[in-house]
């Protein structure tokens, strides 16, 4: 199966981004580009958790609503949420109103605070799980990896929720820990160039 389609400019793009205009913009400007900002990393982990059982397009279309509802995914603020906040979120029609997932974000915010105290930042911890090039599968051919399984296992050990290996792998794809753009996707080279210039928080851990 051909992994790409022609974009509006005639250049090839990963096939999945043809589902909607907002998906194309997300693909071209965000997906696969490295991120070291803790709030963005926490946001993406949270939204991947909300996506469970749904499509990413559904979540992406609601992303600004999620950001407003969760104080731009400032985990220090979310960690202090009360039952009143849960009721507020359950009444917010602009987001996915799932009590378990909402409570997981609050729990994970508290776990994120603990992790930052130990590691200095989320980025310091997460970027240790960047795979070596020799460990990468063919683009978009798998839904988990040794690294996503290891990161998922460690997060669960620390008490995080909704962070299974598939969720974590999608997070790693999006946050640029791997470049999973199709080989002939016109954005792949740009994403790799940015990855090469990216200053990683810590050395990678590739011995899983």
UniProtKB/TrEMBL annotation:
InterPro entries: Adenine_glyco (IPR005019), DNA-3mA_glycosylase (IPR052891), DNA_glycosylase (IPR011257). It comes from the Bacteria. PANTHER family: DNA-3-METHYLADENINE GLYCOSYLASE 1, DNA-3-METHYLADENINE GLYCOSYLASE I. Pfam families: Adenine_glyco. This is DNA-3-methyladenine glycosylase I.
